[in-house]
Amino acid sequence: MVAINTQTILITGASSGIGAACANTFARENPRLILAARRLEKLEQKAWELNKLHGAEVHLLQLDVCDRLAVESAINSLPEEWSEIDILVNNAGLSRGLDKLYEGDFQDWEEMIDTNIKGLLYLTRYIVPGMVKRGHGHIINIGSIAGHQTYPGGNVYCATKAAVKAISEGLKQDLLGTPIRVTSVDPGMVETEFSEVRFHGDTEKAKKVYQGLQPLTADDVADVVFFCATRPNHVNINEVILMPVDQASATLVNRQL
């Protein structure tokens, strides 16, 4: 297992859900953690928790990954001791709505495309050159079963996650000949704020998504991310698809109501 206690890890979307769970899991090994998200108050609370529980070194970035210039500034302005990022966890992402494509909301489309695709690209573009220069690094993209199987109403969201799959595969090919690793972790149903965001804060509607079944937790996904990150340097986990036992595909689930 690769030791990560001397490494610097940047996690986007770290204020909640899978990103926060990844921060918890990695913090146990005492690496340097850079946590990025838009909600600074939540980041500050998370940093306080990690420091209290694990004595973790944490650097915070209030950052909207959709803003390319802000991403460029944030990465270029990192203090010297935090500037050499060893592991990038591209977790920031969201879904909006379940409308039919021909009835879709343009703003929802823009938000998903800007966050799920462009945001991931921006972080990757500004961080990976340093990895290549130093001859060390690992990019872990949080994809989705939606990138493998389209489902009704998922049109644009599924397209963005299919893009993450293609970007991960393409990046792995582009980095061939370097020691840089690329992984895509693609979960099925995970109970986080995901559905609340999708339904614009409608908590009752969000709860029904997971009703009658046991979904994955954010910690389940974080465990897989940690496993991928700690394999021996010559081992690259290209892609992991994980789903709850109660789910067989993007559209087929077992509910006991």
TrEMBL record:
Highest taxon of the lineage: Bacteria
Gene3D superfamilies named among the record's database cross-references: NAD(P)-binding Rossmann-like Domain
Keywords: Oxidoreductase
Any Pfam family hit: adh_short
Family: Belongs to the short-chain dehydrogenases/reductases (SDR) family.
Record-given protein name: SDR family oxidoreductase
